[in-house]
Write a structure and sequence with these properties.
The complex is a heterodimer of chains A (115) and B (116).
Chain A: E1 5-7, E2 10-13, E3 19-24, E4 31-38, E5 42-50, E6 53-56, E7 65-69, E8 75-79, E9 88-95, E10 105-106, E11 110-114
Parallel strand pairs in A: 2-11
Antiparallel strand pairs in A: 1-3, 3-8, 4-5, 4-9, 5-6, 7-8, 9-10, 9-11
Chain B: E1 3-5, E2 10-14, E3 19-21, E4 24-26, E5 31-38, E6 45-50, E7 56-58, E8 64-68, E9 73-78, E10 87-95, E11 105-106, E12 110-115
Parallel strand pairs in B: 2-12
Antiparallel strand pairs in B: 1-4, 3-9, 5-6, 5-10, 7-8, 8-9, 10-11, 10-12
The chains are: A mainly beta (115), B mainly beta (116).
Amino acid sequence: GAGVSQSPSNKVTEKGKDVELRCDPISGHTALYWYRQSLGQGLEFLIYFQGNSAPDKSGLPSDRFSAERTGGSVSTLTIQRTQQEDSAVYLCASSLGQAYTGELFFGEGSRLTVL
Amino acid sequence: AQSVSQHNHHVILSEAASLELGCNYSYGGTVNLFWYVQYPGQHLQLLLKYFSGDPLVKGIKGFEAEFIKSKFSFNLRKPSVQWSDTAEYFCAVNLVGSSNTGKLIFGQGTTLQVKP
């Protein structure tokens, strides 16, 4: 597609369940980022991929959070044993590469609600 | 830790009023600076960016921003806002250096409401 695609757009789950969020970046973009947007908190960086490797995982809030990227394209963010404080909009963005001269292109996000 | 501060959380203006949104960052090194905008129901998109050169940067839709290095600031301005400028505005910083990953550090965002 022309833009960054994320699914699901909305996810409601019960506390303790695992969830998977998917991101399909713009074709040819080697860099991929996950952010979390909570009400009044701005955008919180979670993890960065360059190709399939993740040189910066510094923003993952706990070991319940993990992410992978395969084929230098699609990425999945997994949250295990969800907690209510995990409720947020999870945003994926991609860019042309590590030699950063451009902008991040964002998807529309996956809204996660943990009951 | 490096951070970005947006001092105005919620701004309400009438159409044709002038706009200035504050942004300050804490980092002593070289930075790239950005303003992103999120219109209601839409995804985040780039409004303007500063990498080097003229510290007064012009972006889309009549927006501009001025980088003042001595003040660690990158304030967003528009001389005359329109109702269609109603949106959330985010300031962001990229730290330039050997470990630069292109990661952006975002401020908390400012919600702008323009009354017709």
